[in-house]
Amino acid sequence: MNAYTTFAQVYDLFMDNVPYEEWSKYIISVLKEYGIHSGVICDLGCGTGKMTRLLAKAGYDMIGVDLSEDMLAIASGQNEEGILYLCQDMCELELYGTAKAMVSVCDSINYLLEEDEIIWTLQSVNRYLEPGGIFIFDFNTVYKYETVLGDTTICENREEGSFIWENYYDKEKQINEYDLTLFIREEKQEQLYRKFEETHYQRGYSLEQMQTFVEEAGMEFLAAYDAETKQAPTAESERIYIIAGEKGK
């Protein structure tokens, strides 16, 4: 089953512990550090648009890009900021113009399972960035998948719905699989819960791999930080932010 179809309906419910506001402040601080105080910003893998809306409220002209029509339908339904949402594969990005910066958070890049897909994405980003523009993105590390998540099961039960998350990690292929079993309450029959299943795949990457991808795509590797800090990543970093600069125009 395609990722983020049924799960899109309850994504914000079960992801309410994700510190989007904290993340947005961090991203804004990085944008301003590189002199980007306004202008067009493109959010790749925008999902239901939480980060996109926060950046729009901070004064940026936002474009949200996601492959899931279901996630974008939810984002569009909350679109008071006039954000342009596009249903596209980030590997085949096509914008109507350039952007001062692009961002991608919440491990969207890890859904790219092939190295070529990451390079294609970075090349597309570079193509649509204005001269001097930057791409800020995060990714989950091999360490996180192998050591923190591993073969674990996570469950959560709420009045509106429940989920079972069964996680499996293939060390040889660096592929993380998680099987979601969802029980979602019917709106018209509150005592009735319907069962849905989805399977998601992500791949873990190392900092060294990401730096190589950035450079092979023709971009400039500017910085790498341990998540939400300005500290250098360590062997135990679970999530890393990369800042890549436009190059070649």
From TrEMBL:
Keyword 4Fe-4S recorded: no
Protein keywords: Methyltransferase, Transferase
Coiled-coil region: none
Pfam family, one: Methyltransf_25
GO biological process: methylation
GO molecular function, a single term: methyltransferase activity
Keyword Flavoprotein: no
Entry EC no(s): 2.1.1.-
Residues of the Methyltransferase domain: 41-133
The name this protein goes by in its record: Class I SAM-dependent methyltransferase
